[in-house]
Amino acid sequence: MTVCWRGLPIVIEPKADAALAELPGYLLRRAASVMMAEFATRLAPLDLRISELTVLFVAGSGEELTSSEIGQIADIKRANMPKLLDPLEHQGLIRREPLDGRRIAIIVTDKGEARLAEARKVIEQFETDLLETVPTRHRAHLIPALDALRNYGKE
């Protein structure tokens, strides 16, 4: 089997691949990598990256949230927020609106709402396709298992 690492092809011997296939952390990373690459491809026509969609999705929740609050909810580091907000603002998908004092809300514009509606269709189809790859007998367990893993190390 051949995989890419930092853009370089690496041949993995079948025996080594079988050993890796028994490691849940490895399988989870590989599955996430494959799924996110596919999701990014599907979002590309909307001119949105996954991280930008995440911000737009949280900002469009109906609450007046600051960039810090959006970052906390989406688990995005504070230093990375301007790099995500600036392109969204430049595209006219969000605007910044003063709240009280120094707090500034991130508001999804009408154009942003329209893009979010398009993205939701992509998300729904992607999620449907993703679940269809999982054997039927395992689907009910997938979400609870992933949710448990999401909190790994936070206790």
From TrEMBL:
Domain HTH marR-type: 21-151
The keyword ATP-binding is annotated on this UniProt entry: no
Keywords assigned by UniProt, alphabetized: DNA-binding, Transcription, Transcription regulation
Gene3D superfamilies xref list: Winged helix-like DNA-binding domain superfamily/Winged helix DNA-binding domain
Keyword Transcription on entry: yes
Listed InterPro entries: HTH_MarR-typ, WH-like_DNA-bd_sf, WH_DNA-bd_sf
GO molecular function term, any single one: DNA binding
SUPFAM superfamilies cross-referenced by the UniProt entry: Winged helix' DNA-binding domain
Record-given protein name: MarR family transcriptional regulator
Organism: Aurantiacibacter xanthus
Upper taxonomic lineage: Bacteria, Pseudomonadati, Pseudomonadota, Alphaproteobacteria, Sphingomonadales
